[in-house]
Amino acid sequence: MAGPRRIRVLIVDDDALVRAGLSMILGGTPDLEVVGEAADGGEVVQAVVTCRPDVVLMDIRMPRVDGLAATEALRALPRPPEVLVLTTFDADEHVLRALRAGAGGFLLKDTPPVEIVQAVRRVAAGEATLSPTVTRTLIAHVTVGTASDPRQDRATRLLGGLTERERAVAMAIGQGLTNAEIATELFMSVATVKAYVSRLLTRLGLNNRVQVALLVHDAGLV
Fold first, then answer.
1. Cα separation of 6 and 14, whole Å?
2. pTM for the whole thing?
3. Boundaries of every domain in the chain
């Protein structure tokens, strides 16, 4: 009898040593499977079509096609995989742009192996991999300027179209709370929170909860 399906991972990095290290870390985990590697963002779409990963570990800085462009290309696919950005900087404009483009979170390259494995699992499950502290650092690093900023206007308009309960869930996501924490905070079941998150993504036209958090920050609500 076959066991549970493993999470399929594609590793994208121009450094062969980094790819080898990540492959060793992830390949030694029973519920993860490294199904392919790519050395540049330009190879990613074909690799995804060929390998059908659930999660792409994506280096943000590559010499030809960077992780930002590759993430944007993946989001255009009919059934894109989740993207987890790899970077050496914890507050970088390229990282923020990749998150806006649809990446499910990011990891520093010196993240301990056990945390890398946990992050891959969370992203595969649709959970954010940004702590409240990291989110605040990113937003502060690339702050939107004035109240007339088009991004802030758009965020305010989109959030203004939500129901009071939907807005409360969005605010909680913006604060970096998990589904379980939101359930406790708003006196809901976890299943109800998940339903609200799915509804938010559909109503706001977003890919994942990281983008919901960024929208809340854009509106100046957190």
1. 25
2. 0.74
3. 7-140, 147-218
